[in-house]
Amino acid sequence: MVLILDFGSQVTQLIARRVRELNIYCEIKPYNDFDLSGNIEAIILSGSPFSVLGENALKLDLSGIVGKVPVLGICYGAQWISHFYGGKVNNSNYREYGKANLSKFYEQDPLMEDLEIGSQVWMSHGDTIRKLPSEFEVIAGSEDIDIAVFRSKKSVFDQPVYGVQFHPEVTHTLEGKQLLKNFLVDISGVKQNWTPSKFVEDTVRELKQTLGDEQVILALSGGVDSTVAASLLHRAIGENLICIFVDNGLLRKNEFEEVLESYREMGLRIFGIKAVNEFYSALKGLSDPELKRKAIGKTFIDIFEREAGNFPGTKWLGQGTIYPDVIESLSVHGPSATIKSHHNVGGLPEKLNLKIIEPLRSLFKDEVRKVGKEVNVPGNILGRHPFPGPGLAIRILGEITEEKVKTLQEADAIYIDHLRKSGWYDKIWQAGTILLPVESVGVMGDERTYEKAVALRAVNSLDGMTAEWTPIPYELLGKISSDIINKVKGINRVVYDISTKPPATIEWE
Ligand code: XMP
C-alpha cells in the first residue's frame, strides 16, 4: 500500500482520491503518527497550511523514511524535504496561488514521462524553494519559480526522493494524475491491482475471520452506505446478520415499503419496525432544529435497543462509516468543530455493549457505489440522493405534525418524480423539498387563499461540504410548480432555492 502523510492540507484527501483512481490502495496517516510495518511501497508527503520556517512548522524526521521507500513531497512536503536537508526556502510576501505552467524542463526524468512542456499546474504556496540541498537536483520550473520539480541525485539514497511545488492532486493540474502514476507505478513499482472486486474478496474474507459465527446487528437507513455494508456482511456471515429498518414517519412518500421490499429481495434478514407515533410524540412541541435532531436520535436509540433485546447473543454492531469520517477524526487538526450534530446515533455501541464492525471504513463514497454494484445492490438504492438521518423533520421548519409531513411528502414526491422523468435526478447530487413556516396570500377561483409555501432545493456537490445550486431549466421548474400547487392541498406558492454552500447550507435547518 501507499502511505500518505498528512501535514494538514485541505486537499490531502484528494491525494488519496487520485491514488485510488489509479487502482492503488492507500491510506492517510498523520505526519507524526504512523508506522512502516506492513507493506508500504511508497510515501507521499502532503501540503500544509503552515510554513516550514514558522514556529509551528510540522516537523518530520525524514531519516526514518528516506532510503527505505520512494518518497514524493507535495508543496509543504517538498519544501520540508529541501529544508530538512539544508536547502534554502524563502518566505515571500505574497502567496503564489492559481494556475501556472511547467515551462522549463531541465532534465529528462521518469517522473515527467508523458507530461507536456508547458503543462498546466496548480500552485498554492507562500514559501518558495530558492536553493536545493546538495543531495538534490532540479528537474523542472515554471515561469515564476525555478524549482518546481526536483529529485534526489542518483545513488545518494537507496530509494528515490522527489518534490513538486504544485499540487498534482487537484484537477486544475491537468496532468497531475499522470505524474502520480509515473511516481507510483513506474518509479516505485506499485501494482495497480486494487479494484472493487478485490476489495469485496478481501473484505468478505476478513469479515469471516473476525466474526466467525458471532451475530451482528445493523441499522439500515435506505441509504447507500448502510446498504452496501449490509450486503458485504451478508456475504460473509449470512443469517447471522440481523438488519433493522425503522419507519420514523419522516421518510419520503412510500419509501419505507419500497426500500423494505428491496432489502427482502436482496435476501437480507430484515426486520421492518413501524414506530411512526413514537417519533411524532417525541417531536411534539419542538421547533429548534438541534432539539429535533436529538429527540429523533434518542427515540431511534430506544427503539434499536429494544429490538436488539430480541437477539441477546449479539456481539457486534455493524456501521456504514466511510473513509472521510475516519480521516476527519484522525486529522492533524483533530476532529473538526461540529456545526450540526450529524452523527445522530452516537453513543449506541457503548449503551448496548457491542463491538463495532465497519466494513466500509477505507472507502470513499464513489467507491462505496462501485462496491455496491459489485455485490448487486439494487440500482434504486445505489443511485439514491443522500438523505439526512432526521429526514423530513429538518425539512419542515418549525414544529412537526403528521399533517405537515403528509403535505411535504406529497409535494416532494411530485418534485422527485418530475426530476426522474426528465432525466435530471441523476444529474443532481441531492434534491429535496422544504416546507416553509410562512403562509401567503393567493387566489383560487374567486376566493383568496392563505396557504403554505414550499422551497425546492437541488444541489451539485462532491461530498456535501460545498455545493452549487443546480440550474434546473425554467420550463421544468414551471411544470413542477404548477403540479404541486394544483395537486397538493394547502400549498399555493413554490420557490426555488438558488443559494450556494457556503454560506448557505444544503438543508434549511
Ligand atoms: P448541510 O445542511 O450541513 O448538509 O449543508 C450537508 C449534508 O448533510 C446532510 N445532513 C444530515 N445528515 N443527519 C444526517 O444524517 C443530519 O442531522 C443532517 N443534517 C444535514 C444533508 O442532507 C447534506 O447531504
Which structural class do the helices and strands define?
alpha/beta
CATH topology of the largest domain: Rossmann fold
The CATH architecture category of the largest domain equals: 3-Layer(aba) Sandwich
Number of domains: 3
Q: How many helices in DSSP terms?
A: 14
Bound molecules: xanthosine-5'-monophosphate
Whole-angstrom Rg? 26 Å
Averaging pLDDT over every residue, what do you get? 93
Q: What fraction of the residues are assigned to beta strands by DSSP? A: 15-25%
Helical amount among residues, as a percent range? 25-40%
CATH superfamily of the largest domain: HUPs
Oligomer state equals single chain
Give the strand order, joined by hyphens, for the main sheet.
2-1-3-4-10-9-8-6
User: What does the overall shape look like?
Assistant: globular
As residue ranges, the low-confidence spans are: 334-342
Distance between the termini: 41 Å
Describe the structure concisely:
By secondary structure, this protein is an alpha/beta fold.
What can you see in these coordinates?
Strand 8 and strand 9 form a beta hairpin. The protein starts with a strand and ends in a 13-residue tail after the last strand. Strands 2-1-3-4-10-9-8-6 form an 8-stranded mixed β-sheet, sandwiched between helices. It has 509 residues and is an alpha/beta fold. It has 3 domains: 186 residues, Class I glutamine amidotransferase (GATase) domain (Rossmann fold, 3-Layer(aba) Sandwich), CATH 3.40.50; 187 residues, 3-Layer(aba) Sandwich (Rossmann fold); 96 residues, GMP Synthetase, Chain A, domain 3. The chain is 32% helix and 24% strand. The chain has 14 helices and 19 strands. The relative contact order is 0.09. Xanthosine-5'-monophosphate (XMP) binds next to loops.
